[in-house]
Each structure stands twice: as structure tokens, then as C-alpha cells.
Amino acid sequence: MQTTTQIVLSQRPTGRVDEGCFTAEQIPMPEPADGEVLVKSCWLAFAPAQRSALNDIPSYVPPVALGEVMRGTGVGQVLASRHAGFSEGDLVVGPIGWQEHCVMNPDTVSSPLELVPTDIGDPKLVLTVLGVSGMTAYFGMKKFGRPTTGDTVLVTAAAGSVGSLAGQIARAFGAERIIGTAGSEEKLAWVREIAGFDACVNYHDSHVFRALRAAANGGGFDVIFDNVGGSLLDNALGNISNGARVVLCGSISTGYMPKRAEIGLHNYAYLTTRRGTMAGFIVTDFADEFPAAITEMRTWIANGKLSWAEDMAEGLENAPATLQRLFDGKNLGKQLLHIADPA
Ligand SMILES: NC(=O)c1ccc[n+]([C@@H]2O[C@H](COP(=O)([O-])OP(=O)(O)OC[C@H]3O[C@@H](n4cnc5c(N)ncnc54)[C@H](OP(=O)(O)O)[C@@H]3O)[C@@H](O)[C@H]2O)c1
Chain centroid to CA 148: how far? Predict the structure, then answer.
């Protein structure tokens, strides 16, 4: 009998994510019923929010249940179809999970299973610049950062998937000076030389407040696009200009663990004296606008305005360790995992 492997959550992590939290289970190869497709997983994408979904705490998505296949977005290939909209050989993107194969009804899964556009070139683009990361950077910047000509923009976790694109999108919207933060010399160089930021600050610097101020050429930040939270956000808030927009995209410094972060913001009062605003957002709220955003992003790609990086791990058995890489700062650009090549 042909079998296939799934990785299910067997124990909720209280700290680091490792393979002890998951069990690899062999199941008989599933067969699609009417309206379903059988999909072979090719590449999985990893995002910090997957760590939150391991906590038994309701959020904007429900927690992964014990015994459930770990959730994850990826690109796969249709091996068999009993759905009119999909054919054998099609590449698809959607919630395929941490498993070698899955059957699903594309119409009833929580987020849609979609065909990868055939004119896209590299199908992995739907997991990187034209996927959730790209959409997060685009809508966070466009709707909340709202950079205009001459603005100075700070992006934290700037060597990451969302952050690297957020800075470049701010430039495309007319911002003048783009500053990033990252955690290693290799990343600082990539952010400046490949992503084209004007400066990048190592947030491990013991004088990060002063380093941020110097990077802004002594002026303030008109936009902060924050992926990190905690003391780094606090240091950035102390350097805002009048009318600054602070975009709360994520707070990875908390580790997205069940225990509440202990760091409060001391510099929030600058939002009052400098007439600033601070807003959080969830990218899926803008799903209806994704097609127009993708069109604009594809134009920028064609014009050479966007650079991005993939960080590729190998093998489904390494999925837990691959998720932990995000919290150890090991990834540069979008963290992916290769499972199998499309035929
Ligand atoms: N609001 C939304 O709808 C939405 C959607 C998607 C993602 N997000 C958020 O966007 C942010 C970036 O996500 P991503 O997928 O692009 O991940 P990513 O930035 O590619 O990877 C995470 C990076 O965060 C940095 N990091 C980890 N721990 C840190 C700490 N304690 N302090 C400072 N930096 C730390 C690391 O870079 P360094 O080496 O530089 O430390 C790491 O490489 C996350 O906060 C995520 O939750 C929000």
C-alpha cells in the first residue's frame, strides 16, 4: 500500500519549537472524492504567526489543535483532480500544510487553494514577493505608513521577507531615506547592497537609540514599519518626527510565545507631543485588493525596483527546525522548505 507522511502537532511548545512537539505519521495515500484534488507538496513557506498558532490562545486564526496536521501555506502540484477548475499537473498555492500529500476541496478550505499563474516564471514567487509577505509589506506601507516624497522611513527586521520589501515599497511610493534594522553584519550588508536601503542598524548595538538617530541623519522617522516590537520599537519611537505614522506589523521580539511580553513602551508619549499615530493591521483584511496590488508589484519587479531573497531548507522532517529559524534570526529573506520538485 502506498503511504504518505504528515507532521501533526503532538505537544504545545512552551518555548522553542523543535521536533519533540510534532509527530511524523504515515497514512495511506488519500484519494480525492468528488469536488476534491490530490496535491503533492513542493515548497512550504514559513511565517512567524505559525508559532502563535501553536499556543492554545484564540487569535485572529484559531490555534492548531493537538493531533491536527500543522498548518502551512505552500505550492504543490495536482496529481489527480475531481474538481472542474483544476487539472492534473496544475501548480497550486494554498493551505497545503506540513504533509507530503493532501486531498482538499478547493472551495471549502479556510483560505483559497488557487492556481499559480502560468505566466509568473518562478512559481515560488507566490510564496515570496507576490505572496503574503509581499502583500503585507504593500498594504502595511500603503494604507498605514503612507510614505510621501522626502520621508524618512524605518523598517525593523529589514533583512526578513516582509521588512526587505516594505522598505523598497516605501521607496517606490516616493520616500527619500530608507533605514533598516537587522541582527548580523551579513544581513546589514544585504539590506544596503541588495535591497537598496540607505542605512541599516544592528539592533544588538548597545547604543541603538543613538545609532537610529544617526542613521536618520539627525532628523526623525516619518514612518516606522515595525516587525519587532519591544525595546527596539521603544528606541525607534523616541526618534519620530512630527506627524509620524507607526505601523505595527508584528512583534517577533516576543517570540510569539504564550507568556505575555514584559517590555512596555516608555517612549509612547512622543506620539502625543509629535502628533503621531500608531496602527496595527492584518493583511487578510485587504484580500479583495490583492489582485490590484499584485499587478502593481509585478510592474515594479519588471522595472527592477524590487529585490528579495529565498532561504531554502530541505526535507519535510526539518519543518519544525525551519520554523524555529525565524526566531533565531537564521533566515535571510523568505524562509522556504523544499519537499519535492514538480514533475
Ligand atoms: N500584520 C500582518 O498581517 C502580518 C503578516 C505577515 C507577517 N507579519 C509579521 O511581519 C514580521 C516579519 O515576518 P516575516 O515572515 O517577514 O519574517 P522574517 O522577517 O523573514 O523573519 C523573522 C526575522 O525576525 C528577526 N527577529 C527574530 N527574533 C527577533 C528578536 N527577538 N528581536 C529582533 N528581531 C528578531 C530575525 O532577523 P534578525 O537577524 O534581523 O534578528 C528574523 O530573521 C513578523 O513580525 C510577522 O509576524 C504580519
Answer: 24
* Grid cell of 335 as nine digits: 524562509
Protein residue whose Cα sits closest to atom 27 of ligand 1? 327
Q: Are residues 115 and 231 in the same domain?
A: no
Instruction: In whole angstroms, give the CA distance from residue 296 to residue 44.
Output: 25
Residue of 221, 274, 320 lying closest to 16 (CA atoms): 320
Task: Give domain status of residue 290, yes or no.
Answer: no
Domain that holds residue 117: 3-128+309-338
Residue 221 lies in a domain: yes
Same domain assignment for residues 63 and 97: yes
167 lines ligand 1 (CB under 6 A): no
Distance CA 130, CA 299 (A): 11
Q: How far is Cα 73 from Cα 115, in angstroms, rounded to an integer? A: 13
List pLDDT tens digits, range 241-276. 999 999 999 999 999 998 876 678 999 999 999 999
Average pLDDT over residues 230-234: 96
| Inside any domain, residue 343 | no
Q: Tell me: do 143 and 220 sit in the same domain.
A: yes
Tally Cβ neighbours within 10 Å of residue 333: 24
How many CA atoms lie within 13 Å of 309's alpha carbon, on the beta-carbon side? 16
> Residue whose CA is closest, atom 46 of ligand 1?
250
- What is the C-alpha separation between 306 and 133, in angstroms, rounded? 13
- Which DSSP string corresponds to 21-79? GEEEEEEEPP---TT-EEEEEEEEE--THHHHTTSSS--SSPPPPTTSBPP--EEEEEE
CA of 49 to the centre of ligand 1 (A): 9
Number of domains the chain is built from: 2
Its pTM surpasses 0.90: yes
| Concatenated DSSP letters of 201-229 | EETTSTTHHHHHHHHTTTS-EEEEEESS-
**CA-CA distance, 12 to 3, in Å (whole number)?**
26
